[in-house]
Design a protein that fits this description.
Chain lengths: 416, 416
């Protein structure tokens, strides 16, 4: 299944039809895998995924048995050392990569630093990095940080990926794009853009934070060079859980990443003074990831191992389509064409912040992105059609009643 | 209390005298704060610290209540955003730093990459980094990784810190040294060496992984420029828990670190395309640390907040002194002078690996570092004098009996 093929969707036209779709939903059984607060419709799984029911027990065992009782011997007996590779191989199925092409480590920002520096080294005669100005800011900031380290290098922020052709000259070393836009939810065509970037002689790096677990991704068959992603959104690994990186196998032998920590050494426990990179994806490892947070990922991947991403994509498009259809007269900035849409819906409103807060007060949790976007994420594993119907109706009511126009909804926290 | 002043120690001469010291030990009350396997003397807290009793419950609350129920709203209501700063301020007391000079983030390797790159930028006319060849390898590897990014830069591995003067010329930008050597347990004089490095116009970076929580550290009064450390050894935060970095306040305004992620932005939630570093220590933040592993640190610092490091140092020296005195005819490579010793004892033996395994079979857990060192770490919060007496006797018996010379003790795991 490619992400660009549109899917015919019969959208439900009533709450009863939603209930019927829920009863027939092949993903409905996964709802019981997640803990969610009562009387809440959680439409922010694109920011922080829900807690799997099985996580606390795996965490308890890891902490009390592996750490508390096994102590240092658990490095061998509990197989800790293999986790960045084994968990990476399980994510590989979700992003269309082969075994040994995905590694779980560090964070999205640190991993982008690694692969972008690697890309600049792989294209020594080229010194420009192209990004979208509307990319998630950390991608822009890291690209600045990387290019500052190379003489004559620069990162160029394009108004949008539509402008790529005008800038894809022989000076471009790499292009960094988000597969799904974190604000608008717009989905880019990975295969077509990657091919275009390759024709210009540059390397392609995708940020899949907002697509992994939301839709099928085909990194290998799209011939992508590198990718980075997170595990705390659709993958439900827990707040700020470790990120992952993908490096196409063809780059493994010659890639040289800059964060040469001891876990990326061919023999870390030989404690040699000279760095010798591990063969394969292992050379991208710097340190061992924090084990307790890694355990959150171990737990949630037990669920994801069972999931059919084709079913996820079909339901995701139905849920976002239903929400767009039912939300009423608002400015939806997310593309209405299914093949251009990720798994979230963004709505522009000049008073977006208090509107989101008023909606939260009604038990529908979305979020706000400055200056004026309401964001709603749709997670097919734990959301029902009926909940989405109710959420759209709640938003209509909040807007129609004007109840959001209240001082208590305008007070801001540190994180909006 | 400075770490260089010797402390007069009456070493116990019998198991009864050990029991008397235990009865009078002002730190004895902390033993109940830790979970340890039965019938075990754990002498590997310098590699992975023991599990605090309070950790599972704080972790359960964080996972089930803050993540599971609070979901995205916990960023504000549970104060997550402040944790890298607040936990850093609590570590600051343990390393002699001021408020706002320590940040909890990433790993030792990544943090060293940040501060060493910063140091090279602060000394633009100088391009040499000095380290000890016997340093923990990740420090050497990261120094290689950093210097490769600067034209003409190089890292030089000295046979030992004793050779510093011969190499401290006007080309040296920074010196990176371990406060306590991870193999021998030797302690360097932070104040004297830092002053010497400064007289040569270079910056001083200390790796305090093997001293934080083991002895008092005075980063600020020693005028140290930068330091990195870990929290999973003496600080008991859990396997691979986040690291920390120290940056002297005088460098905050001009420091420019390379891993410019969004959490280091002055206003991360404004989502602006231009990077503008946070004021103060915040500019060294890249991503938010993995929350579950950070919770392990929150729990263990509740204990460390109550600890008098002078008492820790006095007991640590007594325990290591007792072990050296009672271990018999072996080659102790750890300095016998108290002011040159951290909180571990290393013994050289050509068959170190099976000897350690035979000792583990007797319930005394130490570890092995290639090619020939047995390492024993002494953690004053959860070890008693009597246990150390028994451990020394067990090692004497293992060596005298030759029981280590057995095939089952020679089989190696991935982590030795």
């Amino acid at each position: 299944m490619t992400v660009t093929r549109p899917i015919a969707l019969p959208l439900p036209g009533s709450r009863e039809e939603c209930a019927a779709l829920d009863a027939a939903d092949p993903l409905a059984r996964f709802r019981a895998e997640f803990t969610l607060p009562a009387d809440t419709v959680y439409l922010d799984g694109n920011s922080l995924g829900a807690l799997p029911v099985r996580t606390p027990e795996l965490l308890r065992r890891t902490v009390e048995e592996e750490w508390g009782q096994g102590l240092i011997t658990s490095w061998n007996t509990a197989g800790w050392t293999e986790l960045p590779y084994r968990l990476g191989d399980r994510i590989a199925r979700l992003v269309g990569a082969g075994p040994g092409e995905v590694l779980v480590c560090d964070t999205v920002s640190v991993n982008l630093f690694k692969v972008l520096t690697t890309a600049l080294r792989l294209r020594p005669g080229r010194r420009t990095v192209l990004l979208e100005r509307e990319a998630f800011p950390t991608d822009l900031y890291i690209a600045d940080g990387v290019t500052r380290l190379f003489d004559g290098a620069r990162s160029v922020q394009l108004p949008s990926a539509d402008e790529l052709d005008a800038h894809l000259d022989s000076g471009v070393a790499a292009v960094v794009l988000s597969h799904v836009d974190y604000r608008t939810g717009a989905l880019l065509d990975m295969a077509e853009i990657t091919a275009r970037v390759h024709r210009a002689g540059a390397l392609m790096i995708w940020d899949v934070c907002h697509s992994v677990g939301a839709l099928p991704i085909e990194l290998a068959s799209c011939d992508v060079d590198f990718a980075v992603g997170c595990t705390y959104k659709y993958l439900n690994a827990g707040p700020c859980a470790p990120g992952f990186l993908y490096a196409a196998r063809r780059h493994h032998a010659v890639a040289e990443q800059p964060l040469t920590g001891w876990f990326g050494h061919a023999e870390p426990f030989a404690f040699r003074p000279e760095y010798q990179p591990a063969p394969g994806i292992g050379k991208f490892l710097t340190s061992f990831p924090p084990l307790l947070s890694l355990t959150g990922l171990r737990a949630s991947l037990e669920i994801w191992d069972q999931v059919d991403l084709g079913q996820v994509r079909a339901k995701s498009l139905a849920l976002t389509g239903l929400f767009i259809q039912q939300v009423g007269e608002v400015e939806v900035v997310t593309p209405r064409q299914e093949w251009l849409r990720g798994s979230q819906v963004a709505i522009r409103h000049p008073d977006g912040y208090p509107v989101v807060q008023a909606l939260i007060a009604r038990g529908v949790i979305g979020d706000f992105r400055a200056p004026d976007l309401l964001r709603f994420g749709f997670t097919p594993l734990y959301l029902s059609y009926t909940e989405v119907w109710d959420a759209a109706r709640a938003l209509r009511e909040v807007l129609a009643s004007g109840e959001w126009d209240d001082e208590r909804f305008r007070r801001r926290g540190a994180v909006t």
